[in-house]
# Entry
Amino acid sequence: MKIKAYTMPNDLEEAYQLLQEEDAGIIAGGAWLKLLPKTLAPAIDLSGLKLDTINETEENYTIGSMVTLRQIETHGSLQTYMSGVLQEAISHIMGVPIRNIATIGGTVAGRYGFSDLLTPLLALKANLVFYKKGQMTLESFLKEPPKEKDILLEVIIKKEYGKANYTTVKKTANDFPILNVSVMKIGSHFRVAVGARPSVATLATKTMTYLNESKTLTEEVIEEAARIAVEEIKFGSNARGSKAYRAQLCKVLVERGIKEVAYENTN
Amino acid sequence: MKCVNHNTGSIDGKGLMLGRSAYTNDLADPNALTVKVLRSPHPHAKIRNIDIRKALLLEGVECVLTYKDFKRIPVTRAGQGYPEPSPHDKFVLDSVVRYVGDDVAIVAAETEAIASRALELIHVDYEILEPILDFEKAYENESIIHPEPEIHEMFPIGFEPQKNVAASYHMEIGSVDEILKHCDVTVSTSHYTQAQAHVMMEPHTANARLDFQDRLVIYSSTQTPFHARRIVSQALEIPMSRIRVIKPRIGGGFGGKQCLHGEFFVAAVTLKTKKPCKLVYTRKEVFESSYSRHPMRIDVTLGSTKDGKLKALDVKVLSDTGAYGEHALTVFMVAGAKTLPLYNKVEAVRFGGRVVYTNHTPGGAFRGYGAIQGNFAVESAVDQLCEKLGMDPIKFRQNNMIAEGETSPVFAKMGEGTEGTAMNMDSCKLDYCVNRGMELIGWKDKYPRKTISKTKVRSVGMCLAMQGSGIPYIDMGSAIIKLNDTGFYNLMVGATDIGQGSDTILAQIAAESLKTTIDKIIVYSSDSDLTPFDTGAYASSTTYVSGNAVKKAADQMLEMIVEEGAKALKVRPEDIHFDGDVLTVKETDTSMTLESLSNRLFYNEDQKQLVATHSYVGTKSPPPFMAGFAEVEVDLETGAFKVLDYVAVVDCGTTINPSLAKVQVEGGILQGLGMAMFEEVIYNKNGSLITNNLMNYRIPTRKEVTNIRVEFADSYEASGPYGAKSVGEIGIDTPPAVIANAIYNAIGVRINSLPITSEKVWAAIHSKEI
Amino acid sequence: MKIQIKVNGKIKTFEVEPDEYLVDTLRKHHYYSVKKGCDTSSCGVCTVLLDGKPIASCSYLSVKANGHAVTTVEAIEEEATYLAELFGKEGADQCGFCNPGLALTVYAMKKELANPTDEDIRDYLVGNLCRCSGYVSQHRAIKAYMEVRKL
# Structure
């Protein structure tokens, strides 16, 4: 990655206008910049736009796009929100010196397949707020990001009450996941997200529908749900694992995830 | 003993923790040019044309060197004794590139950015040649990797480049085929090991400058400064007397720095430009363009009686040395030489095979040096034989393993590239190591497995290992000790501290002999102008070989002090008692402190500098021994497994510094577990390494294995300094076989290729189910 | 570009390229305690404190540090000396290349975590790799440090 010019605007509109230049790009934390094979001219640092706070209301968490991963995992109530699922996922990312740099905005905008965080964010039905485009769901953003260049301002998580978990299999603790799964239970509703397939995280919608339509949650139902997840989700092979192994991990982690959120008391 | 066998902290720990300038890159001239190397994108190609004109025109570029700038002098980069047992098959730069990452051209520029830009401006026209990317297809392949007429071996090592063979060897004691015919039970196995990367934290670094005498001074992150001086002299045709190699503090080596990497390039640039320069390998270069462990296929056949007496041992190795033959023969031979003697009661033993060239990153020295590969195959096969015999693998080993006072004919037969040296095991507490390890791991309760739940099972596995202590009659260490005014000493050694703590333990040995404390011993290692010769930090030689040299020099210094003291006090030397601080005339009150004696020798009377020097070359290589044990927990659904406990009981003679010795073993074990479990090496089909950075090549973090327990057997090796043997490598040898054996005990399937990943374990369970 | 960083309490002006990383700027100006090990944010040897928080200086653009405070190990000499003593007792110092970065991370951890468990310590330090020690000796020393040097 190369940067031809660097700028840190204090005004959103100015940042937006600059971004429209052909080679312009945004720098969030900058932790993964090196992975980008392009030249930025200019590189627009959002640090001057005061997007680095987490606001909590009765209904929502509003997380500024420049909030670091470390801020989220150490935030008083977000840390424990929904069984602490975000903290759990973030704790698997590299190490503290990187989590003090990497931001939620960078994580979302990068749409990284290897992300630990996107999987539970999807299950939490996170919403994104862009400067021009306004709101869109993380789910649709991950499926197809808007073509127009825009600035991600914040990530909104609507407060719900339930139980959640995040599980992953990795080679070593600071490696990227071979696969990861986040399962949530809100009331009697389940959500299942699967990431590092190795492509970007996705919701297992058919699995969710099947679970939500099942009257009782027997071993057989859970097994069937996991089978549906394996069937509906596309897996691939890379250096971390084969397609077949990922399918197996998906089956096991989905089963275990469902059992964990279903069979214990919800808060 | 006051110093030896004590946990004095490392003499350099504080300074390094505080970040004092110490490493090669810290010590480069602040105005050094940045050197970068253009690297081959092809596994095998001929340079038809190379156009450097545009790069030379770039402002800030000082020089661009290609193969046209170098005389064709074949050398080996391997830092080994001379003549080397490695083929001379490498030119500083060549018109043929032999692996992705091979050296094409050298650029020196005022800044790193300019040097990088200049690399992009060099245009190379390649003629693609057929690569060999599968080492099992290299032998007598139509494509020949080294057809150059100039290359040669230094003495017979079975070098046949026309057949892509870098080295070969065969030996047999007794008749294996005959004995096997009469064995009740036999097993034959094949095992594969991968090209593990060293991943020392400090990348390969070198810098060069011309001093005021117009001599070439090279600072290098090397384990072998004296070999580096010799090889640079040969390759660039500079008299050795015009070169000084300084080894500053090294940020880890593990064998990876027992070879020249950037030294030629910085030397050539400084000679050409007359300016100081430096080269720091990127992590990608460390992975792709230095060298890694030789991958091997190892076929083992064992034969025994039905009551478990091992009678025949047959090991056949195919080793992949990649594009160049550094350490090709010796690593391959150690795969046999440091495993076969463990079972010394066999009636016949055979070892042989060849080392082939391929178009992969070269193989080279790496802690364990073949022993870890051989150990994985032999110690896995032993468990397989026990399975067939229905015999407890520990009982089998206890019946067949080597014991104190015994020998093996293999020692006399196999050396490292030459004939070996016969020796008896004057210290061998392997029996204790096994018994104690069994106790610590809880073998009796845990073997072979315990079911924890529907999806979890726990099991144990173990194996034996041996290494050596230097290479007899080859590895030489030497030491100089000088006395200073006020009575402290300089200890100058050629031995290279690469982070293992050898400066500290050598100071402990000197302090013990001189009856003083280690703060009075100022250690300097190593500098080809200032310190005496040492072959270097490899082959587990420093404690035993260099340690013996230090002890002898220190003993000599003690005698010199007593002699001078006797002169000063006007008595005979035998009348002097010296306690390290004070020289006393026996049975009198007459005394003199060392401080006043040394001040006297410098300033007042009988003025002279006391200097003692000694050398040591081993006449044998007493092996450290170890028994390794692990308890693992396997998730039967995902194949993921954890090492719950790793137990090592080691016989390395006296531990000069028990803490440092322990950490040598602990660190070796985790590095071995990395090879056993995590460190996958993946090439794409074009011969390009995918696992060429620390995101894709995973070494253990502090979370994977948290329970490593190391104990030492009470042992004394009379030929070692204060009873010590070496301990640098033994720790790494056991994990591959221990883990393979434990996984077999858990799931009933044997995994015979490294690393044993969760996916392989799952696939093994899965294939058993269907 | 011209930037100002307060390094170890002293304001310094540096001329940097827009795509220069903090580790390179610091080393260029002879802060040699900051090491460079991997280029991919994976090893932790380049760790410095930015406004008191540990960051991987190989992954942080120098321009972003403009107006901020950077601490290298030289500024925590007393703490690092104490840690070095504990490392020495355990034989954990080894090659030393990762130690300045590790010392800074341990120091930051001590300020952040009150009574960390073994697991907490390993979690916090997981990004600081060491190839020499096998970590167990380091862990013993760091645990002792956390016990004795409570703030």
Notes: The CA atoms of residues 403 and 575 of chain B lie 45 Å apart. The mean pLDDT of chain B is 97.
